Amino acid sequence: MEPAANERLSHAGRIFTSDLSVNEFALLHGAEFEPIDLVMGVSVYHVGFQFAGLRQQAELQVLTEATYRARWNAMARMQAEADALRADGIVGVRLQWRHVGGEANHLEFIAVGTAVRYVPEPGRFRRPNGQAFTSHLSGQDMVTLLRSGFAPVAFVMGNCVFHVAVQGFMQSMRQIGTNVEMPQWTQGNYQARELAMSRMQAEAERDGGIGVTGVHFQIESYAWGHHTVEFYAAGTAVRRTGEAETITPQFVLPMSD
User: How far apart are the first and last CA of the chain?
Assistant: First the structure.
C-alpha cells in the first residue's frame, strides 16, 4: 500500500468516508454491509508512440500494454488499500483518466470506490484468494445481484490499441458523393473490439467468475491521431452463491409534479 495513504486510512475505525449516495448507503445497510472508507489508486503514465505504416492495419501492442499497465497499477493500489482495511469488497468502482502536465501523452489513471464489510460474517464475500472483491456496480445493483443468488468477484477489463490503415487517394476520390462502406474501418474496429472483449472475458475466467455483468465500452484516441484508437471494455465478473430470492416489483408514484 502507498505510504501516503496510511494517515487517511488510520481514521477508518473511527469515521468512514464514502462516495455512496444516500439511497446506496441505505440499501447496502439493509443488506448488512457497512462502509469502511473511500479507497483509491493512482498511476500517472507517459504513454509513448509506436510507429506504424500508413497502410498498416494492426494492433499496436506496445501502446496496448502501456495503457493496460497504467490502469492495472491504479486498480492494484486501490485493491491494496481495501485489503489493508480487511474489507469484503469495493463497490461503485470508477476507473477514469485525464491528461496531466503540459504533454498530451501524460495520462493519469485513477481508480476510486467504497470499501465495505459484511457485518454478520466479515470475510464471507472475499474472493477465493482472500482479497476483497471489486465491482463497478452501484449500491442498488449490488443488492439486487445478491438477492439473485450471485456475488461480485472482480472488476475486469480488456483493451486494444489499434491502427486503422489510411485509405488510398484514388479510393477516396471514387467515394466522393456516394454511400459506401469503408471496409478498413469496419474490420479494424471489429477486430479491436473483439480483442478487448476476449481479454476482459479471460480476466473473468482467471478470477473465477462465471459471467460478466454491466459491460461498457470506451473509445479514445489520446494523442495518437484519428487513425489510432484504443478500445476498452470493462465489467464486473460474478459468481453464484446460492438460490435467488423472489423479487416482487414495486410501483412508485412520483410526487415531484
Answer: 49
Q: How far apart are CA 90 and CA 77, in angstroms?
A: 12
Q: What is the DSSP letter of 177?
A: T
pLDDT single digits (tens) 54-97: 567 889 998 899 899 999 999 999 999 999 999 999 999 999 98
Listed as own residue / partner, the contacts of 139-144 with beta carbons closer than 8 Å and 24 or more positions apart are 139/20, 139/21, 139/23, 139/24, 139/25, 139/27, 139/28, 139/91, 139/92, 140/23, 140/24, 140/27, 141/214, 142/27, 142/28, 142/31, 142/91, 143/27, 143/28, 143/30, 143/31, 144/247
Instruction: Classify residue 104 by its DSSP letter.
Output: T
For the stretch 92-151, pLDDT in tens is 999 998 888 777 778 899 999 999 999 999 999 999 889 999 999 999 999 999 999 999
Which residue's entry shows cell 484508437? 229
Question: 97-101 contacts: CB < 8 A, separation 24 or more?
Answer: 97/70, 97/220, 100/44
Max CA separation in the chain (angstroms): 70
Outline where DSSP puts E strands in 177-243: 211-220, 228-240
Tell me how far apart the alpha carbons of residues 115 and 113 are, in angstroms, rounded to a whole number: 7
Q: Which residues pair with 234 in a beta bridge?
A: 157, 216
pTM for the structure as a whole: 0.84
- Which grid cell is 77? 493500489
